[in-house]
Design a protein that fits this description.
Layout: H1 2-20, H2 30-50, H3 55-71, H4 75-99
Helix pairs in contact: 1-2, 1-4, 2-3, 3-4
Amino acid sequence: MRFIVGLLASAFAVWLALRIYPGRQSRESFGGALLTAFIGAAIFWLFSAINIPLGTLIALVLWLYALKKLQGVGWLGAALLAVLIYLINAVLGIFLPTVL
């Protein structure tokens, strides 16, 4: 249950970031945002599970690459989207535990 709620919250953050980011991205729908959030979660889970040195940094680069490919933006666009997603998730992280 916790995974599902976290995934939906992350998908909402991705969707909102795609709405805020200027221009039209490839997968701007909520389904595309859900796919993007799931791939990001899978990347970070994999690198935390294998626990290699610099795993978080490698996961971050792969996450940016996934954003770049999934949303049809450049590296800078992927980085800006990642920052927006992080900030939105931080705000959701403050309010979501109080709601649940």
